[in-house]
């Protein structure tokens, strides 16, 4: 389908759109002291999972449901894949092929040559008629003794045959679902009119990169090692991936190619030869290595030079009443992804020739202290988390700088009263940061990411947190902080060269 028609067709306004996630989440905060355990103050323990996902699940499902008649939601290949009975999954595919052929031969069906050609193509992994010795099946179509020729086919397949059906069924399903999810995610943005949020995240990203560039230039350790130019260049290459029509095309094209290939194959046969055609599509469908432009699950990623965020953040940014909350939440996540580009483990350098040990030690030390103070289920601080921890901390600093630039003297003004507590814009920024990871279940670390409560409570490291909530120095939140961990900027560490160079 032509892309323009397609976009027009799918731009139906969805009215369930005005949901302000940040305001909704503010209504759920508890009466506890924010300086005691900020995460549990903002995100009380309770009967809910990841708050962002739960809040948007049904909204997004509605949008997807409205698209149920669209061509990509009605693929024949997917219907067939879903109808294959599980009992078939582990059957011997070679036997299935031989039996189909024998039956076709006995009917003297004219398509038996086509059948043998498809089988031959799968075995030779070649779309033309090239074959050698036992992979040459096409000539068997001339043999009229069906018992004999089926026996030959069986013998040939025992040399180099098919995978069990479960293999290609599962991989096709997985592949198709992946494309569909991406297509749906783009359609959520289009149908819900989230362009305002896209624009916002784009400008956050650009502004944060400008701030970061400026900090990098003034960073003592980078200056001492002469690497500020390299780091700045990397930072300036980063941008938010927001070319949705292109992303849509990148997912629709391969999906429809699979569908066409499948339909063409099945129409060659008078009886259903679905399994052969599925195996055929699985063999010749060209896997796209990077179709994930955007996600339907709540997430974000950085793959140089682009950052990507899920539709949730665009929806939040479109509908949040106050920019401070959007900056704390969507700004922090956008900043985190940018920060991934400029944070390295000094012991495992990848892109940069050097990285500040002191800066990373400070970050890890903060995570360790926060983890020990607030542990709920499990949390740990280890070297494999350096990249994520560093990205969290720098992302927060970048987002806060944007907040400071936007609000200036108005940061202490009241935004709203909740449970007779007056919430200022500066506080709203930090609430937004907590809402990014809100979860009613006890926090556990997930691989390279620290536990949600730790990721949130490390915000005490930023001096603005103490200011926003007027926390006492001996409060639990502040007790974990030694000093602000700055990776970049004029107050970042020196990290001088250990050895003089050859200038004797
Ligand atoms: C078909 O082939 C089998 C063995 O390969 C043989 O026993 C049989 O006689 C053949 N039938 C005819 C009709 O030629
Ligand atoms: C965390 O802190 C504890 C206690 O001070 C210390 O024993 C441990 O080595 C620290 N771990 C890391 C990874 O810094
Ligand atoms: C809310 O108001 C009540 C009654 O005026 C007061 O007792 C309570 O301390 C207030 N709570 C907060 C968090 O300010
Ligand atoms: Zn990350």
From TrEMBL:
Entry-linked Pfam families: Peptidase_M13
Gene3D superfamilies assigned to the protein according to its UniProt record, in alphabetical order: Collagenase (Catalytic Domain)
Signal peptide: 1-18
Domain Peptidase M13 C-terminal, residue spans: 324-485
The keyword Zinc-finger is annotated on this UniProt entry: no
PROSITE patterns listed in its UniProt record: NEPRILYSIN
InterPro entries: MetalloPept_cat_dom_sf (IPR024079), Peptidase_M13 (IPR000718), Peptidase_M13_C (IPR018497)
GO cellular component term, pick one: plasma membrane
Name the UniProt record assigns to this protein: Peptidase M13 C-terminal domain-containing protein
Organism in which the protein naturally occurs: Caenorhabditis brenneri
């Amino acid at each position: 389908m032509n892309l323009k028609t397609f976009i027009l067709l799918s731009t139906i306004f969805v009215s369930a759109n005005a949901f302000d996630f940040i305001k909704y989440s503010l209504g759920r905060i508890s009466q506890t002291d924010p300086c005691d355990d900020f995460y549990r103050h903002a995100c009380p323990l309770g009967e809910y999972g990841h708050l962002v996902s739960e809040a948007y699940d049904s909204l997004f499902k509605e949008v997807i449901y409205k698209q149920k008649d669209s061509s990509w939601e009605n693929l024949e290949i997917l219907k067939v894949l879903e109808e294959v009975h599980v009992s078939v999954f582990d059957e011997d595919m070679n036997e299935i092929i031989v039996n189909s052929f024998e039956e076709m031969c006995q009917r003297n069906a004219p398509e038996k040559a086509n059948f043998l050609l498809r089988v031959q193509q799968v075995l030779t992994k070649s779309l033309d008629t090239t074959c050698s010795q036992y992979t040459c099946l096409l000539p068997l179509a001339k043999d009229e003794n069906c018992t004999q020729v089926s026996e030959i086919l069986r013998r040939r397949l025992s040399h180099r045959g098919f995978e069990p059906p479960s293999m290609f069924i599962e991989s096709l399903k997985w592949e198709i679902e992946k494309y569909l999810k991406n297509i749906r995610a783009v359609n959520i943005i289009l149908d819900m009119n989230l362009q305002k949020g896209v624009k916002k995240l784009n400008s956050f990203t650009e502004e944060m990169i400008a701030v970061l560039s400026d900090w990098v230039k003034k960073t003592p350790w980078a200056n001492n090692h002469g690497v500020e130019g390299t780091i700045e260049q990397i930072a300036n290459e980063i941008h938010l991936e927001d070319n949705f029509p292109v992303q849509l095309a990148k997912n629709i094209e391969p999906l429809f190619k699979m569908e066409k290939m499948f339909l063409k194959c099945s129409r060659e046969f008078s009886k259903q030869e679905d399994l052969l055609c599925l195996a055929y599509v699985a063999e010749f469908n060209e896997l796209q290595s990077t179709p994930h432009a955007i996600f339907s699950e709540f997430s974000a990623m950085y793959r140089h030079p682009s950052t990507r965020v899920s539709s949730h953040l665009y929806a939040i940014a479109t509908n949040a009443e106050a920019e401070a909350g959007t900056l704390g939440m969507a700004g922090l996540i956008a900043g985190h992804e940018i920060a991934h580009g400029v944070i390295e483990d000094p012991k495992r350098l990848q892109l940069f020739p050097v990285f500040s040990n002191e800066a990373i030690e400070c970050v890890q030390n903060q995570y360790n202290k926060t983890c020990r103070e607030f542990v709920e289920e499990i949390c740990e601080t280890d070297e494999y988390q350096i990249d994520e921890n560093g990205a969290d901390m720098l992302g927060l600093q970048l987002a806060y700088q944007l907040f400071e630039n936007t609000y200036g003297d108005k940061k202490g003004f009241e935004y709203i009263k909740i449970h007779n507590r007056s919430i200022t814009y500066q506080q709203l920024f930090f609430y937004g940061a907590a809402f990014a990871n809100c979860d009613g279940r006890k926090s556990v670390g997930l691989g390279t990411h620290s536990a949600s409560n730790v990721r949130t409570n490390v915000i005490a490291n930023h001096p603005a947190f103490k200011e926003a909530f007027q926390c006492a120095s001996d409060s639990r939140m502040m007790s974990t902080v030694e000093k602000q961990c700055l990776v970049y900027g004029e107050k970042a560490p020196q990290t001088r060269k250990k050895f003089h160079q050859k200038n004797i």
